[in-house]
Amino acid sequence: MAGDRDLSTRPGTDGDFDFAWEVYRETVRPLIEPRLTRAWDEGAEKERFRNDQWKISETYIIALDGAPVGWGAATITDKNVVVKHFYLKAEHREKGYGAILFKEMLQVWDKEGKEVRASVFKGTSLHSLGLQLGAQEQSQDNINPATRTDLTVELVRKPANP
């Protein structure tokens, strides 16, 4: 719950693709477009998203009062969680919804003894939230050079009660 509003998640479906693309594009395009060495091509970017980012088995939809307001994706194993995506529509950011969801998820993952990892855009509210919730920035030296960027930082949070 978020005050008197119902904040929940549900598994993603194929029918959520266009919604997820719109939220992803709205969030990511302003961050990466200035660094692209090519022009933003809407069709090509959507195909890249479909082929490289959209994994239905890892996806969940974030809903507020039953209406989708964001989406995320994570790979969860018996020992760790890798948060791959977490996006809210612009009008639902900075309202504490992400903090509420992450605190609830971390309680579960702490009980299960899972380490949580996430690559986040530097300087964003998600970056700040991760640090507030106990994550540490991983040295860039330990990140695969093929995926390392000055735009993101790898956050790692050990379980609070292993």
Write up this protein.
This protein is α+β, with helices and mostly antiparallel strands and 162 residues long. It has one domain (7-157): Gcn5-related N-acetyltransferase (GNAT) (Aminopeptidase, 3-Layer(aba) Sandwich), CATH 3.40.630.30. 31% of the residues lie in helices and 28% in strands. It has helices spanning 17-32, 42-53, 97-111, 125-132; strands at residues 7-11, 59-64, 67-76, 80-88, 115-121, 136-137, 152-157. It has a 7-stranded mixed beta sheet, sandwiched between helices.
Query: Largest beta sheet, briefly?
Result: 7 strands, mixed
- The CATH topology label is Aminopeptidase
Order of helices and strands: EHHEEEHEHEE
The helix-and-strand class reads alpha+beta
Count all strands and give the number: 7
Rounded Rg: 16 Å
**Total number of helical segments?**
4
CATH superfamily: Gcn5-related N-acetyltransferase (GNAT)
Oligomerization state of this entry? single chain
Number of domains: 1
How are the strands of the largest sheet arranged? 1-2-3-4-5-7-6
CATH architecture heading = 3-Layer(aba) Sandwich
Distance between the termini: 27 Å
What is the mean predicted local confidence, pLDDT?
86
